[in-house]
Amino acid sequence: MVKDLTTGKRLSRPNPASKRKQVDAPHLRIVSDETWAAVRAKRRAIVKPTMHRVPRLLSGLLRCPACGGGMGSVGLHRGEPRVQCSTYRESRSCSNSRMVNRNKIEAAVLDGLREVLRDPGYWKHYLKVYNEERRLLASGAVRDRTKLESRVGQIERETDRLVDAIAEGTAPADVVGPKLLALEAERLSLEEQLAAAEDKGKAVALHPAAIRNNLATLALRSEATFSYRRPVKLA
Questions:
Q1: What span, in angstroms and rounded, lies between the C-alpha atoms of 141 and 15?
Q2: Residue closest to 123 by CA, chosen among 204, 201, 211, 203
């Protein structure tokens, strides 16, 4: 304990390791070493290692229609995965005890997505919003474009001076060489940033064949996961 001269309060400070003393105190043990080892061995035999859960299509997105709480997996029922209101399971403060087939929920969601994606108006709206966002990003990149171009010019001038110094014999090549490599790497990086800023402002169009391919891919993935296509009512 030390005293703070400013406030007059006593403060605790750890002693340096050289001044510490460590001794066994067997009389302070609550249980014997044998009992402690036996309990730990029994616990290791009982507690099973936690299995890694693979995220599902709607992991963390399902909500209970009664209380709005999350719905989590409750294992298999007749070979099918089920979900149930987590609030009901944990505290019984929700009245919804129903267990719902997860596969049917996911099938209903994919069916709904396919219906939406078949609508040409959806793709037009998507491309409009996407291109507006690209233009916003491009406007932000333009503000930095002048700075990037200025730095590229500085690098080119500095590179020319170093090359002239080597040619005139006023600077050794083994000293200037690494500097030239660093400048070249920086120049290439800046040019990539300038090219990326240029691409952000370009509008994107979607070919009708791409829409058909997306729908076909979605159908194949859902067929590999589910064996039925019946919608499910959650409430």
A1: 56
A2: 211
pTM of this prediction?
0.42
Residues listed for the chain: 235
| CA–CA separation, 13 and 188 (whole Å) | 54
Residue 190 to residue 220: CA distance in whole angstroms: 42
Say which residue the tokens 């001794």 belong to.
23
pLDDT of residue 178: 81
pLDDT band at residue 219, thresholds of 50, 70 and 90? low
> Is 3 within 8 Å of 10 (Cβ atoms)?
yes
